[in-house]
Write a structure and sequence with these properties.
Layout: E1 3-5, H1 6-13, H2 17-25, E2 37-38, E3 45-48, H3 49-70, H4 76-85, H5 87-90
Antiparallel strand pairs: 1-3, 2-3
């Protein structure tokens, strides 16, 4: 359960540091939020390995959902139909 600075997470997982910073700035209720702690007055941000693993899993599952939604339509008629159905149908009733 050791803490890793964002720079260390970036190097270990190959994630650009700006994406990690954006994830720490997201609201905690946002699925893109990366749990973190601020260590000192300079604002050094750190996170745990477990938190990063959970965050990566959420990002992978969200990316798969978006990919499926993109390939749902074949032509302009299908796209128009999906737009008329609204976001609740496109998101599988999640909203």
């Amino acid at each position: 359960m050791r803490l890793l600075r964002l720079k260390d997470v970036s190097e270990r997982y190959g994630i650009p540091i700006h994406i990690l910073r954006d994830a720490t700035k997201a609201v905690p209720t946002d699925p893109r939020h990366l749990p973190h702690v601020v260590l000192n007055r300079k604002g050094t941000v750190a996170t745990r390995e477990e938190w990063v693993e959970e965050w990566l899993e959420r990002m992978r599952s969200d990316a798969e959902v978006r990919r499926v939604q993109v390939v749902e339509w074949r032509d302009s008629k299908d796209l128009k139909r999906l737009v008329k159905e609204g976001p609740e149908k496109r998101a599988g009733g999640a909203r």
